[in-house]
Amino acid sequence: MGVLIGLIALLASGAAGAEAATQADALLETLVRGPGPNKGNADAPVTIVEFSDFQCSFCRKFWRETLPRIEEKYIRTGSVRFVYRHLAILGPPSVQAAIAAECAHEQGKFWPYHDRLFANAGPFALTTSNLKRYAEELELDRGRFGACLDAERPREKVERETEVGRAIGMTGTPGFLINGGRLIGAQPYEVFERIIEAILKDAGQGQPRAR
């Protein structure tokens, strides 16, 4: 974590120079291409990195209203690659839910588990017993998931992504990097569409055809 903390301090201080720029570029590349849940064409001209918290009502709104439209028009047609990063800032249940989602990711079930977490809102939705129940409902290996969650193996990854998100200016959830440009908040679908179409136009691809 020492290198990460040093880089965060460098970015926060607004340090100038080639070294700072190179390190910042490397950090962004890790966010975009590093290990973690993603879907879509690896070579898509547009990459959206979402920073999200499973307790966040605006993140749930994005998941319910906007992401399905982006997925239908752009992810499934190969124009957008979508990456999920944790910004677990709303307390211990947020961190615990993010850890659970990473435990599901270990079994190749991040996205179904992600959907289950957002579908279950309420004050007791993210208790340990419920997090384990969701895994059972999705037919994950019960013992493997429970061991991962109880040991909190992915905690460092969750905390690291949260730190980095804050360092690059994600002041709230959800936050997005779209080909490196920041967008904060549960913006309506039309905002994403406008940005994506502009990038596709610059790439000479024009509007993708819906399936």
- Please state how the strands of the largest beta sheet are arranged side by side: 1-3-2-4-5
Low-confidence stretches: 1-12
- What is the terminal-to-terminal distance? 44 Å
Strand content: 5-15%
Beta strand count: 5
Along the chain, the helix and strand elements come as HHEEHEHHHHHEEH
The whole-number mean of residue pLDDT values reads: 88
Radius of gyration: 17 Å
Helix fraction? 55-70%
Q: Specify the overall morphology.
A: globular
The biggest sheet, with number of strands, parallel, antiparallel or mixed sense and barrel status, is: 5 strands, mixed
Please report the number of helical segments: 9
The computed structural class is alpha+beta
What can you see in these coordinates?
The chain is an alpha+beta fold and 211 residues long. The model is unreliable at 1-12 (pLDDT under 50). Helix 3 (57-75) links the parallel strand 2 and strand 3. 55% of the residues lie in helices and 11% in strands. A 5-stranded mixed β-sheet has the order 1-3-2-4-5. It is globular, with a radius of gyration of 17 Å. The protein has helices at 2-12, 18-33, 57-75, 92-105, 110-119, 128-137, 142-151, 155-167, 189-202, and strands at residues 38-39, 46-52, 80-86, 175-178, 181-184. The protein contains 9 helices and 5 strands.
